[in-house]
Amino acid sequence: MSDAVVNGLAGAGGGIVAVLLTYPLQAVNTRQQTERTAKRGKVAEDEEGALAFAKAYPTKLQKGTLQEIWEVIKNDGWGGLYRGLLPSLVGTACSQGVYYYFYQIFRSEAEAQARRSKKPNGEDGSVGVLASLFVAALAGCANVLITNPIWVIVTRMQTQKRKKGPTSSTENDLTVQVDGGLPSSAVTNPNFSGSPTKSQLGARDTVKDLYKEAGLLGFWKGVLPTLIMVFLLGAVAKLGATVVTYPLSVVKSRLQAKQDGGGHASLQYAGTLDAITKMVRFEGLAGFYKGMSTKIVQSVVAAAVLFMIKEELVKVARTVVVINQPNCTRLTNSKLDS
């Protein structure tokens, strides 16, 4: 078994364990990122877009992580914290597997190239910092382009919210507002014009809904800010990268979440630049950092678990290979002797 396959499988295993341990934080963070809130201050009466946005998403204080978790449990039950877990596990296994597989391939090629170009003046021919960053960026880009559709589906499922019907008061009459991350105040706002669906969308229905809305290209929504994040992640440490790239993560989540199908154009995003422009105009810079504290905790814990599990799995796999090699050698020699 090649090192690329071993590292890919180990990365997938470590990623699955990390997701299982931190998924509630990830789900809450996605909701925080996609929650729109008008920035504070008086809106000029002649700004039609700003007025429409402020009406749909009134200014309010952002909930903390524990408050948000309690809100999800209260409205959606414990299952709300784990909505989209299955596709997230599949996505994480694929993402980590693809990333570490391609990273090992590109890394091995870079090391081979460095050895071939080794100079007799004392240079050891090892892979430099820039080459290492480039290798990580290439592996990250391959991962993003291959697995982005899975994460669009996960984001859609994580941002589904329940809404009580106007004439119902029982739990059986609960309907769902698949609102692309609208805040709870917008969901219960009588001025909100979105029409709720009748049941929680599963992965298959989410795929159908997304394809109907945007075709095949819809599965690659948010790919541009994600690719930019990959390059920045390769240049700084994990904690610093979370802070530096977080605004792009928010933009990505906004683009991947289901858009408000009705209302003013200010409530919809046409693309990356349009999302950034409207967020700055209607929500201010604070809109780019919603839920960052949740993300920092989730990222650090997930990264620690991922690397710990991955390295242990790599060691186990290599030990198994070493143990089996003598048996394979003896078997081969016995066949030759016979």
Structural key phrases:
mainly alpha, Mitochondrial carrier fold, 338 residues, 65% helix, two-stranded antiparallel ribbon, single chain, 11 helices, 3% strand
Mean pLDDT: 75
- How many discrete structural domains? 1
Annotated CATH architecture? Alpha/alpha barrel
Query: Biggest sheet: strands side by side, in what order?
Result: 1-2
Strand portion: under 5%
The biggest beta sheet is recorded as:
2 strands, antiparallel
Count of DSSP H/I helices: 11
Which fold does the CATH topology refer to? Mitochondrial carrier fold
Q: What percent of the residues sit in helical stretches (DSSP H or I)?
A: 55-70%
What is the CATH level 1 assignment?
Mainly Alpha
Spans with pLDDT under 50 lasting ≥5 residues? 164-199
